[in-house]
UniProtKB/TrEMBL annotation:
Catalysed reaction, written as an equation: UDP-alpha-D-glucose + 2 NAD(+) + H2O = UDP-alpha-D-glucuronate + 2 NADH + 3 H(+)
UniProt-recorded name of the protein: UDP-glucose 6-dehydrogenase
Stored PANTHER family: UDP-GLUCOSE 6-DEHYDROGENASE TUAD
E.C. number(s) listed in UniProt: 1.1.1.22
Keyword NAD: yes
SUPFAM superfamilies reported for this sequence: 6-phosphogluconate dehydrogenase C-terminal domain-like, NAD(P)-binding Rossmann-fold domains, UDP-glucose/GDP-mannose dehydrogenase C-terminal domain
Family matches, as InterPro entries: 6-PGluconate_DH-like_C_sf (IPR008927), NAD(P)-bd_dom_sf (IPR036291), UDP-Glc/GDP-Man (IPR017476), UDP-Glc/GDP-Man_DH_C (IPR014027), UDP-Glc/GDP-Man_DH_C_sf (IPR036220), UDP-Glc/GDP-Man_DH_dimer (IPR014026), UDP-Glc/GDP-Man_DH_N (IPR001732), UDPglc_DH_bac (IPR028357)
Upper lineage: Bacteria, Pseudomonadati, Pseudomonadota, Alphaproteobacteria, Sphingomonadales
Length: 433
């Protein structure tokens, strides 16, 4: 099949590369000529494990191409995927659909035959209706179907998630579009990956409901972690104890400094706004958003407490800046609020991250960036583990302590056992233990 992917960011590039690896002919489109030139040169605009190799192999095989020419890419396509950004709109938190509708208008002008238009971007309920309305107005009388096909990719594990999905959700009641989508996902269908066909609005809502539920699990265990600290319990044992219940499950029950990234923050806000528009408030999600926002600053106060209650004139080493490991994504990362709270308290911050520092420099120019964890910790009064990158799981603790002005560790990911850290000479604090 011939597939066109509008948008060559995280979702579009990963999806396009994986579809081409299935044997389809894929053209990825982007308005950013610099990005397209870099992709043609084999340089990835994002860090995602294995993506560079996957892209290179399929470019070499002739199945994957990149272009800025949307009109030429859409002409003759069997399926056109819209995978552009839908950030939170400034001021009100609604999903900004400017890029989706702009792409739709350009697609409409380029259509030259029967085609299926697929919204891969995360969009509020009813967006597909508007996309269909625009296409009917501008694209003439060609048979066109609009399908919702949300992505469920975890940054850092996106290729595996695409090729071995828990489920594939396809929102359409059009028989021809259903067959086209079956053909698109045929390799996964043969592997018996579950394909769920629903109405288009239902499909759009599934994505938001899934992310809101996962965000709720994270926020729930974070609040239980605070209770554990107050009563003298261990949140890791609580997580295991409840996670062994199949009705609950163990995933997303790891206490930490709060969720961030490109999906949960904006998607929970967008769900709230949709619920408000339809006068059906989702109070649980409202609480999740509020608790998560306040938790990030609270983690900064936790570090200040570990410093004796006063951070003025002290130096803090922050290990990990991205919102999770195996990505360079800094969007809504807990580190942003934690570092700002430390700076506001008068501390100097030295930081290290394996992949996120170049992006972080533009967001936090006032802190020092270091070559590794040991350089960051040299002369510091405390070291804080914010992101659980593998390289922070096996630090030489005695060496680390020996470089510091005061051996204090605040482990916001519960990477270490207290006994091991204290044996190395640290004063140690963690989450919910």
């Amino acid at each position: 099949m011939r597939i066109t992917m509008i948008g060559s960011g995280y979702v579009g590039l990963v999806s396009g590369a994986c579809f081409s690896d299935f044997g389809h002919d894929v053209i990825c489109v982007d308005k950013d000529a610099g990005k397209i030139a870099a992709l043609e040169a084999g340089k990835m605009p994002i860090f995602e494990p294995g993506l560079d190799t996957l892209v290179a192999a399929n470019v070499a095989a002739g199945r994957l191409k990149f272009t800025t020419d949307l009109k030429a890419a859409v002409a003759g396509a069997d399926a056109v995927f819209i995978a552009v950004g839908t950030p939170s709109r400034r001021g009100d938190g609604h999903a900004d659909l400017t890029y989706v509708f702009a792409a739709t208008r350009e697609i409409a002008e380029a259509i030259d035959g029967p085609v299926v238009i697929v919204t891969k971007s995360t969009v509020p309920v009813g967006t597909g209706d508007k996309v269909e309305e625009i296409l009917k107005e501008l694209a003439g009388d060609f048979p066109i179907a609009v399908v919702s096909n949300p992505e469920f990719l975890r940054e850092g594990a996106a290729i595996g998630d695409f090729k071995r999905p828990d489920r594939i959700v396809i929102g359409t009641e059009d028989a021809r579009a259903q067959q086209v989508m079956r053909d698109v996902y045929r390799p996964l269908y043969l592997n018996e990956s579950p394909i769920l066909f629903t109405g288009r609005r239902t499909s759009e809502l599934i994505k938001y409901a899934a992310n809101a539920f996962l965000a709720t699990k994270i926020t729930f265990i974070n609040e239980i972690a605070d209770l554990c600290e107050a009563v003298g319990a261990n949140v890791q044992d609580v997580s295991r104890g409840i996670g062994l219940d199949n009705r609950i499950g163990s995933k997303f029950l790891h206490a930490g400094p709060g969720y961030g990234g490109s999906c949960f923050p904006k998607d929970t806000l967008a769900l709230l706004k949709t619920a408000e528009d339809y006068e059906t408030p989702v109070r649980i999600v409202e609480a999740v958003v509020q608790v998560n926002d306040t938790r990030k600053r609270a983690m900064g106060r936790k570090v200040i407490t570990a410093l004796g209650g006063d951070a003025k004139g002290k130096t803090v080493a922050v290990l990990g800046l991205t919102f999770k490991p195996n990505t360079d994504d800094m969007r809504d990362a807990p580190s942003l609020a934690i570092v700002q709270s430390l700076l506001d308290a008068g501390a100097a911050v030295r930081a290290h991250d394996p992949e996120g520092m170049e992006i972080a420099k533009g967001m936090m120019p006032e802190i020092a960036y270091c070559h590794d964890a040991y350089e960051a910790a040299a002369g510091a009064d405390a070291v804080v583990i914010v992101t659980e990158w593998d390289i922070y799981r096996a630090l030489d603790l005695k060496r680390l302590a020996g470089t510091m002005a005061a051996p204090v560790m605040v482990d916001l990911r519960n990477v270490y056992r207290a006994s091991d850290v204290e044996k190395a000479g640290f004063a140690y604090s963690s989450i919910g233990r």
